[in-house]
UniProtKB/TrEMBL annotation:
Keywords: ATP-binding, Ligase, Magnesium, Metal-binding, Nucleotide-binding. It is an enzyme of class 6 (ligase). Coiled coil: none annotated. The lineage of its organism: Bacteria, Bacillati, Bacillota, Clostridia, Halanaerobiales. Gene3D superfamilies: NagB/RpiA/CoA transferase-like. This is 5-formyltetrahydrofolate cyclo-ligase. ATP binds at residues 4-8, 135-143. It comes from Halanaerobium saccharolyticum. Its EC number is 6.3.3.2. Substrate binds at residue 55.
């Protein structure tokens, strides 16, 4: 879809020009808002993502989640199909290495044969989000495929800088919306 491609390029270019100081400051606020979610009281298994290229930074948050005793899962890209696999992470230093697209991914020896069917919460990255919870990702379709197959009853939480909350984007049948969006300024429950 051409319009999505153009919007993706626009927002990613704009994001690439944000200063690292702002990225770090905003990320800290988003991570703190996440840790304040009431939903975390009923959550054990959390799937996060390894941040890259000026995404909302997640490494400090993941360390905190591990310290608090949550079971942390990270995705890896399955090259043969458009989907993500998962792995339970115990140590961010030893359990990750650079994988597809330059993303830190779980090392092969710890990857799950099957995605856990009982993930409680999934943190979802994106280039931009609408207030209704739809997003433009990076164009591979990996997250939408994963969410449609494996999100089941999991709470889906989108991380987004406030300036990339947009009024509307083209939505396709396979797009999956998130339940909550967290920006550095607010926490939004979507419809």
């Amino acid at each position: 879809m051409q319009e999505k491609k153009e919007l993706r390029e626009k927002y990613l270019k704009e994001r690439s020009q944000i200063s690292q100081n702002k990225i770090s400051s905003w990320s800290k606020k988003i991570n703190n808002r996440f840790l304040e979610l009431n939903h975390l009281k009923n959550v054990k298994k959390i799937m996060a993502y390894a941040s890259m290229r000026k995404e909302i930074e997640t490494f400090d948050l993941m360390e905190e989640l591990l310290d608090q005793g949550f079971l942390l899962y990270l995705p890896y890209t399955k090259k043969d199909v458009i989907d993500l696999g998962t792995a339970k992470i115990n140590d961010l230093d030893s359990d990750l290495k650079e994988g597809v697209y330059g993303v830190q991914e779980p090392v092969p020896k710890i990857r799950d044969e099957e995605v856990p069917e009982d993930l409680d919460l999934i943190i979802v990255p994106g280039a931009c989000f609408t207030h209704c919870g739809y997003r433009i990702g990076y164009g591979g379709g990996y997250y939408d495929s994963f969410l449609s197959k494996h999100a089941n009853k999991a709470l889906k939480v989108g991380f987004c800088y406030d300036r990339f909350l947009v009024d509307s984007i083209p939505v396709e049948d396979h797009d999956v919306s998130v339940d909550i969006i967290i920006t550095e300024k607010e926490t939004i429950k979507t419809n």
